[in-house]
């Protein structure tokens, strides 16, 4: 069995007490990818110190020189695409096509932020007195801790790491324990691209020890976290005690509204992509479909048929369209919510059980007649479970879409331009899709949710990332 290592101060090392944990393939439980360091607090503190020591040199390196390393990393990701995507599928479960899409995204993110090395700067402002020079300067925030989930084990680290590095920060990166090897390969790529020692440090292990030590450290200037609401809220509370800057991206319960003029086949395609793509394990996954009464029966029948046609299996096999849940826990959560939905009185149209054997497979599941107060309408499941809610008209559909504590992504399927733009204006969500699935993001556009889907502080991706990863200094140059 392969043993992975931490990267601390440029050295690949084991946990200092030698403890490890296993990384297992959710599609084939006897396939163990390797053992990872179960890092202790002292090792995490060493990683923070290494990042602090590397900060002055990296932060003062000219932006284009930092960008050149990111550009090289992008090229290496391209060259190692198949290898990394295969590991991603083996440890997380998504199909190889989905995994390649994710590695491609990481490649492009590094390419994009390589360019930021040339662009990021401050502004010159008009002065109050003639002759004074008044300008702002963007500086790196400092040492940043990146804490990421398992569901996008390379794209999410990439969209945090690339801007962090482009703007001159140093990093301690803690990946999710269910998908640590893809994350390690990303760090390996950065080392291969010539990143100086200490600029990125990588520590695997439990959220409670590794994550908590990072979040509580006064030497860490910023924490960027993606994960569940409960962990995110704990991080916020802890980090604020040191006035550490925090960025949180958390859960979703994303609606797609299907209006009565919509083409049913088109709507079904969008909902299947959004709800069953990535096994429903996406923060932007479609989990509620709010359909106008006039077409609800036809839509429900067509979605049921589409779910029946999906091929579920090991993501490495050709033709498989949906992989397993990531873990035994996630499988049990999916099945538990399916049971809750049935007890609450929603009508199970298809699926509802574990599928196949040898992996954590769940059948693509569709409920109809889901009512707003039901738990399956309010709580994030993070699996391939879609609930159809019926609406009397556009206003009713919009009220149902907004009647929830999350606000990450939301879609409408319609040819009615007026309603499409009303939806865009009135939906309480950070990402709005018109005639597109709720999933799928452009890396150059700001990303982040409203309500409990985020801390509502800083957006990620695109030019918006500079706000989190830099601090602004204002400089007045007088003439004595
Ligand atoms: P978790 O919140 O359980 O874990 C996220 C990360 O936090 C992991 O690295 C985890 O480590 C770590 N962690 C756990 N406990 C602590 C702690 N006390 N202090 C610091 N760090 C800690 O989420 P999942 O990994 O299960 O990911 C699924 C969740 O992520 C879903 O709710 C989903 O909606 C959300 N998500 C949000 C996205 C967005 O952009 N809005 C995108 C993708 C996912 P460990 O793995 O070791 O437990």
Name its key features.
480 residues, alpha/beta, 5-stranded parallel sheet, 24 strands, globular, binds NADPH dihydro-nicotinamide-adenine-dinucleotide phosphate
Which ligands accompany this protein?
A: NADPH dihydro-nicotinamide-adenine-dinucleotide phosphate
Radius of gyration, in Å, reads 23 Å
Question: How much of the polypeptide forms β-strand, as a percent range?
Answer: 15-25%
Number of helices: 15
DSSP strand count? 24
Briefly note the structural class of the backbone: alpha/beta
Indicate the low-confidence ranges by residue numbers.
none
Strand order of the largest sheet: 15-18-19-14-13-21-22
What about the largest sheet? Answer: 7 strands, mixed
Can you offer a commentary on this structure?
It is a single chain. This protein is α/β, with parallel strands linked by helices and 480 residues long. The protein has 15 helices and 24 strands. The strands form seven sheets. The protein has a seven-stranded mixed beta sheet with strand order 15-18-19-14-13-21-22, with helices on both faces. The longest helix has 24 residues, at 96-119. The protein binds NADPH dihydro-nicotinamide-adenine-dinucleotide phosphate. Residues 147-152, 174, 176-177, 206-208, 211-212, 215, 226-228, 231, 234-235, 249-252, 283, 380, 382, 408, 449, 453 line the site of NADPH dihydro-nicotinamide-adenine-dinucleotide phosphate.
């Amino acid at each position: 069995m392969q043993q992975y290592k931490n990267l601390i101060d440029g050295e690949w090392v084991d946990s200092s007490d030698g403890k490890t944990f296993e990384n297992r393939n959710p599609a084939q439980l006897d396939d163990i990818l390797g053992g990872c360091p179960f890092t202790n607090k002292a090792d995490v503190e060493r990683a923070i110190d290494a990042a602090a020591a590397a900060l002055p040199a990296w932060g003062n390196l000219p932006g284009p020189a930092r960008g050149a390393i990111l550009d090289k990393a992008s090229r290496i990701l391209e060259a190692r695409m198949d290898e990394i995507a295969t590991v991603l599928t083996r440890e997380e479960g998504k199909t190889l096509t989905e995994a390649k899409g994710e590695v491609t995204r990481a490649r492009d993110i590094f390419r994009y932020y390589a360019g930021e090395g040339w662009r990021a700067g401050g502004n010159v402002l008009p002065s109050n007195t003639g002759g004074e020079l008044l300008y702002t300067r963007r500086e790196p925030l400092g040492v940043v801790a990146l804490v990421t989930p398992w569901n996008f084990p390379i794209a999410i680290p990439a969209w945090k790491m690339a801007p962090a590095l482009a703007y001159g920060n140093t990093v301690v990166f803690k990946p999710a324990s269910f998908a640590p090897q893809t994350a390690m390969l990303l760090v390996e790529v950065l080392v291969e691209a010539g990143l100086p020692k200490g600029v990125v440090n990588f520590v695997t292990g439990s959220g409670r020890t590794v994550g908590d030590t990072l979040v509580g450290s006064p030497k860490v200037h910023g924490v960027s976290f993606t994960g569940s609401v409960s962990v995110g809220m704990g991080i916020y509370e802890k980090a604020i005690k040191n006035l550490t800057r925090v960025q949180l991206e958390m859960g979703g319960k994303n609606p797609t509204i299907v209006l009565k003029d919509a083409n049913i086949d088109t709507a079904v395609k969008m909902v299947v992509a959004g709800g069953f793509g990535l096994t429903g394990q996406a923060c932007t996954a479609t989990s509620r479909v709010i359909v106008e009464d006039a077409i609800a029966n036809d839509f429900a029948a067509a979605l049921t048929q589409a779910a029946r046609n999906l091929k579920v299996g090991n993501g490495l096999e050709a033709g498989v369209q949906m992989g397993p849940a990531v873990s035994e826990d996630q499988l049990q959560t999916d099945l538990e919510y399916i049971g809750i939905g049935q007890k609450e009185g929603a009508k199970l149209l298809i699926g509802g059980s574990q599928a196949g054997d040898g992996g954590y497979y769940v059948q693509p599941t569709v409920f109809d007649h889901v009512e707003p107060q039901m738990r399956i309408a309010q709580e994030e499941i993070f699996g391939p479970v879609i609930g159809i809610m019926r609406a009397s008209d556009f206003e009713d559909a919009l009220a149902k879409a907004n009647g929830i504590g999350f606000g990450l992504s939301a879609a409408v399927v319609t040819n009615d331009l007026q309603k499409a733009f009303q939806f865009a204006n009135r939906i309480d969500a950070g990402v709005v899709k018109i005639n597109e699935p709720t999933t799928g993001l452009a890396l150059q556009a700001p990303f982040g949710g409203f309500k409990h889907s985020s801390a509502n502080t800083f957006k990620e991706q695109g030019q918006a990332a500079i706000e989190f990863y830099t601090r602004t200094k204002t400089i007045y140059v007088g003439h004595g």
